[in-house]
């Protein structure tokens, strides 16, 4: 069995120079340091600290670039490519990107990380010594955790989703706080690796936090009011909806409850942007005309 394993850092010596680089050795096994990986100040007489990986031909190769992410060492990495039949590729600082197998990703493709998302990973090898990304588990993430203070309540924080559960999503914030988003506190389930921004709705005794991705009441009203106002403009300033309209009609047209609709409509009326007449709503300027 080979003593040299992909994903590890080892010290090797020059065995021989070849036209396409140097073969380095541990005394029993040789591995190629390709000329594209050789810096100008390279001294073949010195012991070399190298990282081992597979090149594009699948052969064990060496690089003098030592990535933070390797076997037994975790770090944040960016997703650079998504292939539904394989998984997602992450960039760890090498010329070759590393695959996180689809077997280690959510069952639903829509919940897979997208390009630009971040994952907390180390590396692993299979029985054929092929190198793969290894997603962090809960214990790995907890080593990064910081204790959240009570004064965080109602503050907005940003964090990366690192675990998907039936009842919600786990995130770790940019500050290092562990957070949980219950499924009732979001309109859409975020992807693994997605950066989200939410409001702290609870700080627990263990120093973790509960988050909501739903807007605050006044923010929701502003958003709903904008939606109604835009719809009015698209219809030439008039619409057959008002505070007496049926709930199912409002839900079907605006994707909001009747209560939300009435609050938003009330805001627009208070601002004298709209008026109601005979069950219709009109832009105020249009009505004057």
UniProtKB/TrEMBL annotation:
Per its UniProt record, what InterPro entries does this chain match?
CvfB_fam (IPR014464), CvfB_S1_2nd (IPR048588), CvfB_S1_3rd (IPR048587), CvfB_S1_st (IPR039566), CvfB_WH (IPR040764), NA-bd_OB-fold (IPR012340), S1_domain (IPR003029), WH-like_DNA-bd_sf (IPR036388)
**What PROSITE patterns is this protein classified in?**
S1
Q: What is this protein called?
A: S1 motif domain-containing protein
- This protein's source sits in the domain of life called Bacteria
The record's comment on protein family reads: Belongs to the CvfB family.
S1 motif domain span:
154-214
A Pfam family of this chain: WHD_CvfB
Family matches, as Gene3D superfamilies = Nucleic acid-binding proteins, Winged helix-like DNA-binding domain superfamily/Winged helix DNA-binding domain
Residues passing through the membrane, by range: none
Q: Which GO terms describe its molecular function?
A: nucleic acid binding
